[in-house]
Design goal:
- It is a single chain.
- The chain is an alpha+beta fold and about 260 residues long.
- The protein has helices spanning about 10-15, 30-35, 110-120, 140-155, 160-170, 175-185, 200-210, 225-230, 235-240, 245-255; strands spanning about 1-5, 20, 50-55, 60, 75-85, 90-95, 95-105, 125-130, 190-195.
- Strands 1, 2, 3, 4, 5, 6, 7, 8 and 9 form a nine-stranded mixed beta sheet that branches.
- The longest helix has 16 residues, at about 140-155.
Length: about 260
């Protein structure tokens, strides 16, 4: 048997927090097909294109994605990623957590002090700053944050802070100092702010940092840099059947940290 747990809007789609499926030998793709065929009538639609699907707490994209095989006793978590905010903002919801991602221009003179100041001013938010070079794009950062939020829910954080867990997963290491040295913000480079909390506080933060933001979020192509940084070979890339093999390999490194 497989236990399926629903989070956020997925609960409304199935009128339940969880269900048990007795079929064995399913893949994630089979499971989604089963769920859509058996979804109660007159309930909200489930957007299967915007889901974080975790198997026993590990993001399925770090395994074989939709073709990941499920085993008896597995727990599958279905977590909708809900997009929101204006076209100039990158804001999304994972389970019950509202997240906003912003990119600060490299013209900011003292990036570390800038980050410290907004942390002091917005203590109700979880805020982390990371080098822009370590993010492939929106999908990559959403899934990394999703891994950390899932780890927090399952009490499997790599650190006692959610913000540090995100940093460590992006760096692919369980050593905090190494993660800070590797992925932490650098002088003279754009850096990304990840903020998690309620909408009111996120709006206040956005207004505060808006004058310093880069006009184009995730504009740089970091593929070559990240392949070198994580020593990912051409053979490794070719071994992944995916539209985004580098992203999947980075997520795999992030998911297996303990």
């Amino acid at each position: 048997m497989i236990e399926v747990k629903f989070f956020g809007g997925a609960k409304k789609s199935f009128d339940n927090d969880n269900i048990t499926i007795k079929q064995d030998g399913l893949t994630i793709k089979d499971l989604l097909s089963y769920l859509m065929k058996n979804k109660p009538k007159d309930t909200p639609d489930l957007d299967v294109e915007n889901l974080l699907i975790a198997i026993n707490g590990i993001d399925s994209s770090a395994k074989d994605g939709l073709y990941t095989k499920l085993n008896a006793g597995d727990t599958v978590s279905i977590i909708p990623i809900i997009h929101g905010g204006s076209s100039q903002r990158t804001q999304f919801k994972i389970s019950n957590s509202l997240v906003e991602v912003m990119e600060v221009s490299k013209n900011q003179k003292n990036a570390i002090k800038f980050l410290e100041n907004i942390r002091k001013k917005f203590q109700r938010l979880k805020i982390q700053g990371i080098s822009s070079r370590f993010v492939l794009g929106k999908s990559h950062i959403k899934k990394i944050i999703g891994l950390s939020l899932t780890a927090k829910k399952n009490k499997l954080l790599l650190s006692n802070k959610l913000e540090t867990d995100i940093l460590m997963r992006l760096a692919g290491t369980n050593q905090i100092l190494r993660a800070i040295e590797t992925v932490g913000i650098k002088k003279g480079n754009n850096f990304i702010i990840i903020a998690i909390g309620n909408k009111t506080e996120l709006n206040k933060l956005y207004r505060e940092v808006k004058p310093f933001l880069s006009s184009l979020l995730f504009n740089d192509d970091n593929h070559i840099f990240l392949k070198k940084q994580f020593k990912i070979s051409k053979n490794q890339m070719n071994s992944i059947i995916s539209k985004a093999p580098l992203e999947d390999l980075l997520l795999e490194k992030a998911a297996i940290l303990f």
